[in-house]
């Protein structure tokens, strides 16, 4: 019988545009090379790897389940325990932090808790938790992450996790009500801003017309960082 587990589904924002405008070799070698090192650090939290570990080896030895295809990353607990559930939340928070300041691989995560069937041999991950995590991920109007009420309860609530914070999560349609946001800002860092692009700290006037939806996500992400980040408030 399927057992209940925590699952986090993440999406690399703007990846379609990146693929259409960027040489594939650059995506694989630079963007994904960095992303793989960030993923390894998020899973192990034992120093920044100079060379990415073989992904199959990482997937086998990681403390949680991981899958990655194109612009989607899936993290899930291998068993329904407090430690395994917390490990998924911590990995998602660290991966958000590691990638937030690199515009090409910024992420958005939705996390749910519920029945989950996983069969790696058959390439199957299915269950209502997959659907809810996917819906919550796509409904958020920022780079960041949020938990459903079921996932929030499973990890002990907002007040018992330094990787969670109560915040009015910006949603497009409000399909799943939640105020449980992933506090990806808790990683120690110097004062910094979330740049609009590698070449520009801020938007241009034309961006607000042509890419107003992307601008809104960027503004919401910066608003969260400005309000929540302890390190930047203390060091400015």
List keywords for this structure.
globular, alpha+beta, Alpha-Beta Plaits, 9 helices
Structural write-up:
The protein contains 9 helices and 8 strands. The protein has a single domain (3-187), classed as Nucleotide cyclase, GGDEF domain (Alpha-Beta Plaits), CATH 3.30.70. The mean pLDDT is 92. Helices cover 42% and strands 19% of the residues. The strands form 2 sheets. Strands 1, 2, 3, 4, 5 and 6 form a 6-stranded mixed beta sheet that branches. A two-stranded antiparallel ribbon has the order 7-8.
Q: What's a quick, concise take on this entry?
A:
The protein has 236 residues and is an alpha+beta fold. It has helices spanning 15-21, 24-44, 55-61, 82-100, 128-139, 149-154, 207-210, 212-228, 230-235, and strands at 3-12, 65-69, 72-76, 107-119, 124-126, 144-147, 164-166, 180-182.
